[in-house]
TrEMBL record:
Residues 13-111 form the Cyclic nucleotide-binding domain. This is Type II CAAX prenyl endopeptidase Rce1 family protein. Keywords: Activator, Membrane, Transmembrane, Transmembrane helix. The chain crosses the membrane at residues 162-181, 193-213, 233-255, 319-347, 367-389. The keyword Chaperone does not apply. Gene3D superfamilies: Jelly Rolls. It comes from Paenibacillus xanthanilyticus. The keyword S-adenosyl-L-methionine does not apply. PROSITE patterns: CNMP_BINDING_3.
Length: 390
């Protein structure tokens, strides 16, 4: 009894009570040690007991009238009280929620029924009701904050779903047009050359992605369109790309070693300069290639990968799912050139997709793409190997 009275004297719900009043409350109280899953208060009951959580944890549950299922509303921590609303209700009032322990706990249950029925306790009832009102006001303020946060979260989720829906519609629209016009694209490639057709497809897709991003309502930085920490991003991109460049040179050296009939060197640019084959036209081609690399990365990273990363349901596999799917879609857009070439664009794309997810910046992936592309086509050179092997 003394231990109960000592704990009750320090609890906010019983503040300002005299020692005599605390003794009367303690006389109606009892210690309870309960296991996880014990119902301390049951929705629909008509008792007027209040539970003080001395140790452990509990949760407030509300029953769904239609399904009969209980839903957790809030978790109660050590020191919390529950059941005070019954003291504010009339004699026929019933519990509006269930209180259930969610771990082994120690509680004090106070039966206020005899106190409420004795007119000698009128002064104490006024103090208790004042304390309850103050406690409920604080809980209401907390509930309001939680509700506002929940509403904001739901609005953000709804906004993401709308953005994902618009993204899906646009992608399906583009893929449908691309698939329906595939035969025409093949004829145009034969007539005009693949470069002009590729430029046209890139221009259409980039425009569509730009419009989609502008209409999404999200900041450009969410799609990697930012110059924040650009020095760090470029430096890291360069360091991550150097091993790839070395691997490409080693791979060509191995191919030449296994195919001595191919008349080439590891670095074709050296042979071209020595033979006087290098001219300003190659510089123009190189500059044009470097110009279109960011456009390609904009489509696959900012337009497709970002949308998937940000708007797909949260999961551990979401980032890699976004990387793989965005590169498959982008590789499909090269199918009019050559199926082998389309598949070859997939693998470095996975690397740049990983880099983009790591940095959340289009700058790093674009810079790496430029380095690798210029290295492959204009420094190492793959033209002779390509025709010899494919």
């Amino acid at each position: 009894m003394n231990n109960i009275a000592a704990f009750l004297g320090g609890h906010p719900l019983l503040a300002h009570l005299t020692p005599d009043e605390l003794a009367r409350v303690a006389a109606s109280a009892q210690w309870l040690e309960v296991e996880a899953g014990t119902e301390l208060i049951r929705e629909g009951d008509a008792d007027k007991s209040v539970v003080l959580l001395v140790k452990g944890g509990a949760e407030v549950l509300k029953r769904n009238a239609e399904s009969g299922e209980n839903y957790v509303i809030v978790r109660l921590e050590q020191g919390a009280s529950a059941g005070e609303m019954a003291l504010l209700a009339d004699a026929e009032g019933t519990r509006t929620a269930t209180i259930r322990s969610c771990e082994p706990s120690m509680v004090i249950r106070i039966d206020f029924e005899p106190i409420w029925q004795d007119s000698a306790n009128d002064a104490m009832r006024v103090k208790l009701l004042s304390n309850i009102s103050r406690d409920l006001s604080a809980k209401l303020n907390t509930t309001n904050q939680v509700t506002v946060a929940s509403i904001r979260k739901e609005l953000a989720a709804s906004k993401a779903q709308i953005a994902m829906g618009m993204f899906t519609v646009n992608i399906l629209f583009l893929l449908a047009i691309y698939t329906l016009s595939f035969r025409t694209l093949m004829d145009l490639v034969i007539q005009w050359g693949s470069n002009w057709i590729s430029i046209g497809i890139l221009a259409i897709m980039a425009t569509a992605m730009y419009v989609l991003i502008r209409r999404s309502g999200y900041p450009p930085s969410m799609f990697g369109l930012t110059l924040a920490n650009w020095r760090k991003v470029l430096g890291e991109s360069f360091l991550l790309t150097v091993p790839l460049l070395a691997g490409i040179a080693i791979l060509k050296w191995i191919v030449l070693l296994l195919n001595p009939d191919i008349d080439d060197t590891v670095f074709s640019i050296v042979r071209q300069v020595a033979n006087g084959e290098f001219d300003q036209t190659m510089l123009i081609y190189g500059a044009a290639y470097a110009l279109f690399c960011p456009i390609q990365e904009f489509i696959s990273r900012s337009g497709i990968q970002s949308a998937l990363q940000n708007f797909l349901p949260p999961s551990n596999k979401r980032v890699w799912l976004a990387i793989i799917l965005s590169n498959l879609l982008f590789a499909m857009a090269h199918a009019h050139l050559n199926l082998t070439f389309a598949l070859l664009t997939l693998f470095p794309g996975l690397y740049w997709g990983w880099m983009y997810a790591r940095q959340n910046s289009l700058l790093g992936a674009s810079f790496s793409h430029i380095l690798v592309g210029v290295w492959i086509f204009f420094v190492v050179g793959i033209d002779k190997i390509w025709w010899a092997l494919f």
